[in-house]
Amino acid sequence: DDRTYRESFMKETIDYALDRFEKISRGNCEANNRDISNEIAPNNVIAFVGDRGTGKTSCMLSTINIIRQREKQTLRNDPDAVRNHFMDMLDPSFFDNEHSILDILIGKMYAEFRNDTANIDNFDQQEMRALVESFSKVKKCLKFIGERMNHDDDSLDELNHLAAGVTLKREYHNLVKLFCRWFKAKYLVISIDDIDLNTVQAFSMMELIRKYITQSNTIVLFAVKVPQLTNAVKLQLTQQYGSIVGTGNHMSTAEIALMADRYVEKFLPINCRVYMPDADAILSQPLMIVEPDGR
Question: What are the pLDDT digits (tens) for 225-254?
Answer without folding.
Answer: 999 999 999 989 888 876 666 656 567 788
